[in-house]
């Protein structure tokens, strides 16, 4: 079975996939460097993850098991549609379990469960250039990258502290990859930045509209920028997850119908796994384990 | 040899063609410029300009609009490519280095540590969307300062040195007056303690009383820090107040050079005489 009749395996034609793979090889060879590629029109709009989908399509094999998450969750619109897209065009197995997946396409999160060497994480990236807000000319930012001239990024962090008393950037927090290239980690919360560092999994980033791919090879140093007297720190919560009692995961605040609020894990698979293992929070009764 | 394909202008005096003085030793200049040429198509931007600038020396370039002053300044600051000529700069620990042979990374390093460039319009030289403190701190961060408290302290010091209220450290430059923006731009350039500063009409566009205070400040800073400076101005009073030496330009060529007082009190070239005599006396 090949997937959708009339279409090539995983939608893109083989020449396009080859072109993207070549760009990816270059990206892996130069960690954090943005490699231009000929981004294709995809059957969904820019901003929905066209870059990530093209990367996934080019690396997908018939035996791969695909997991797609959006904001940590497997069942949001974006994730459901992208999963179904590959289900139809490539007929690959899909899963919502982090440990079963060989390719995980993600928007805005890195799974809580540590990844392994056999997994590839594909990020959807809206703005690949971390300095774009400070320096709108791409000719200039490319030169700044070439000369590793990254003082500008610290101007931004300085300005944050001067205005808010702390570094107010909480997502898409700039990192230095392998001690050389400044990189936008895509809009993941800074909570996830430490997971980029020395990850055993290959991490690929695709920006469809901006036509760039970049990568962090396995076991690569990734440092978040900071000041000596204002070191990088991740978000912390007073609360624990209301469903699984986890105190080590990224929490979403959910407004309830009655006007109350509760905090739950943004990673739905992590939360479900913990509940299945018998953890309960304040907002639920012990899970009746279904078959 | 005239690289411009034009005749070399008769040197007005000996300062125009400084002898090489037997090797580039201790008395070597900070900046040595030989036969700079730049054409814009058929038009001459700058033709055959040569001079030496020593550490701590202030050189004013005067002349009417379109005489090539700004072109010269941009050539010196390596913002424009030369058509012909050579420039050597004394880099600490490396001696006189041909700027053309310097890698781009080295040149940028030079421009943000050892050099400064004060734009005529402070909006061109400042980042208008970040605070005064970030503007002053940018160069420090570019050369590796990573301690917020110290960057801030230094920035505050510099605001005081340019006679600005340090309480305005966190304000955006958009809220500053023209004179204050110019002060901020000067602070931003001097924070890395450069040895050479280029200034393009630093007091133009300011009202007269603000001009006077700014000139006062500039004179003080230049003496205190031992700065060498090249100041482009059409205002002979600015030259008189700040400069040790003066270079009079017309149609891209240097028509007269010499000590400031000497040139302004006893101009030799007819054009300089015209320039000096056309200053309004109040």
Q: What do these coordinates show?
A:
The complex is a heterodimer of chains A (291) and B (282). Chain A is of the alpha/beta class and 291 residues long. Chain A is built from seven helices and twelve strands. Chain A has helices at residues 14-29, 50-59, 77-90, 138-146, 151-164, 193-196, 268-276, and strands at residues 35-36, 65-70, 93-94, 103-107, 120-124, 175-177, 181-183, 202-207, 212-216, 222-224, 251-255, 261-265. A seven-stranded mixed β-sheet of chain A has the order 1-9-8-5-4-2-3. A three-stranded antiparallel β-sheet of chain A has the order 7-6-10. In chain A, a hairpin with a 5-residue loop joins strand 11 and strand 12 (261-265). In chain A, helix 1 (14-29) packs across helix 2. The two termini of chain A are 29 Å apart. By secondary structure, chain B is α/β, with parallel strands linked by helices. Helices cover 35% and strands 23% of the residues of chain B. Chain B has ten helices and ten strands. Chain B has helices spanning 69-76, 104-113, 122-125, 132-142, 148-161, 178-190, 208-225, 236-242, 260-265, 270-277, and strands at 31-40, 43-53, 58-62, 84-91, 95-98, 115-118, 196-200, 228-233, 245-250, 253-259. A six-stranded mixed β-sheet of chain B has the order 6-7-8-3-9-10, sandwiched between helices. The longest helix of chain B has 18 residues, at 208-225.
Spatial strand sequence of the major β-sheet of chain A: 1-9-8-5-4-2-3
* Helical amount of chain B: 25-40%
Instruction: Name the structural class of chain A.
Output: alpha/beta
Return the structural class of chain B: alpha/beta
Mean pLDDT of chain A: 93
Q: Biggest sheet of chain A: strands, sense, closure?
A: 7 strands, mixed
The largest interface is: A-B, 17 and 22 residues
**DSSP strand (E) fraction of chain B?**
15-25%
String of helices and strands of chain A: HEHEHEEEHHEEHEEEEEH
CA-based shape of chain B: globular
Main sheet overview of chain B = 6 strands, mixed
Helical proportion of chain A? 25-40%
**Tally of DSSP β-strands of chain B:** 10
Tell me the radius of gyration of chain A: 20 Å
